[in-house]
Design goal:
Radius of gyration: 18 Å
Order of helices and strands: HEEHEHEEEHH
Shape: globular
Strand order of the largest sheet: 1-2-3-4-5-6
Strand content: 25-35%
Oligomer: single chain
Mean pLDDT: 86
Structural class: alpha+beta
Amino acid sequence: MKRIVFALVATGALASMIAYMAPASGQADGEAAPIYEIKIPSGYRDWRLISVNHLAGGNLKQMRAQLGNDVAIKAFREGKVPFPDGTIIAALHWTEASSDENNKVLAIGFPGAGLQSSVAESPVNVQFMVKDSKKYAATGGWGFADFKDGKPGTEALHKTCFPCHEPAKDRDYVFTRYAR
């Protein structure tokens, strides 16, 4: 019984994350991000899930999901590094909020356990990594883009992308690990 309730809550939390993705998060025909000239890929919200994570510290409390196009998913499944050209990874970020509704379900399924549930609330931004080893040779073969409300971030923001990913050089600059 407890496993079923837990599975239902976990499924509900993931569904909540997907449902809260802002419909106006950008279009493929919108503005391109500076430096790398990447636009929001059409249909990225229908890509497959790579992984989810939680980020907390200071005033920051976010839920995050990484999605991949077909090329990315195939590479992750095969453990292929470096990633092939054409790989695109999307990172969707939301603020995190406590879910009273889920907490009530947890209290029934796990009485006395004191479990707390969080769900995705407001969209923060969406980021993309695009693999093109020739076009982005200076940045490990990756181009980067950050969008908030469908608008690209500043050039200064985009200059921080590659340095942030350099510690993951041994994994082709990708932090995300595939959740099987």
